[in-house]
Amino acid sequence: MFTSNPTFDAYKQIFATGALLESYYTTILRTVLGTLLTVVVSAMLAYPLSKRYLLGRKWWMGLIIFTMFFGGGLIPTYLLVKELHMLNTIWSLVIPGFNATEYRLYENGVLIETKSMQAATPGAQSAVSTIAGRGVGTYEYRSELVNAGGVTSSDVLTVRVEK
Question: What is the residue range of the signal peptide feature (predicted)?
Answer without folding.
Answer: none
